[in-house]
Amino acid sequence: MQTHISLDVFRYRPEQESEPVFQRYEVPLRKDWVILDALNYIKDQVDGTLSFRWSCRMGVCGSCGMMVNGTPVLTCASFLEKFAPGPIRVEPLENFPVVRDLVIEMSDFMDKLKKVKPWIIRREEEEKSPATEYLQTPSQLADYKQYSMCINCMLCYAACPVYGLEPGFTGPAAIALAQRYNLDNRDQGQQERMELLSADDGIWQCTFVGECSAVCPKGVDPAGAIQRYKVGGAGDWWKSVLLPFGKGS
Amino acid sequence: MENLTIKEKRPKKYIRPMPIFWWVHRWVHIKFIARELTSVFVAAYAVIFLLYVRSIGRGPDAFADFSERLRVPALIVFHAVALLVLLFHSITWFNLAPQAMVIKIGDRKVPGVVIALLNYAGWVVISAVLAWIMLHKQ
Amino acid sequence: MSSHQHECDVLIIGAGGAGLRAAIAVVEANPKLKIGVISKVYPMRSHTVSAEGGAAAVIKSNDSLDHHSYDTISGGDWMSDQDAVEAFVQEAPKEMIRLEHWGCPWSRQEDGLVAVRPFGGMKNERTWFAADKTGFHMLHTLFQNTLKYEQIERFDEWFVTKLLVDDGRCQGAVAIEMATGKMHSITAGAVILCTGGCGKVFPYTTNANIKTGDGMALAYRANVPLKDMEFVQYHPTGLPFTGILITEATRSEGGHLLNKDGYRYLQDYDLGRPEPKPVLRSMELGPRDRLSQAFVKEQEKGRTLTGPYGSFVHLDIRHLGEKIINAKLPFVRELCLKYENIDPIKEMIPVRPVVHYMMGGIHTDIHGATPLEGLYAAGEVACVSINGANRLGSNSLTELLVFGARAGKSAAELVSGKKSKSTALHALASEEVARIERQFLKKTGGTERIADLRKEMHQTMEAGAGIYRSEATLLKSQGVIQSLQERFHNVSVSDASRTFNTELISVIELSYMLDIAEAIIQSALHRKESRGSHQRNDYPKRDDTTYLAHSLAYRKEKELPEIKYSPVTITRWPPGERVYGR
Question: In B, what residues contact C, Cβ < 8 A?
Answer without folding.
Answer: 1-4, 8, 10-11
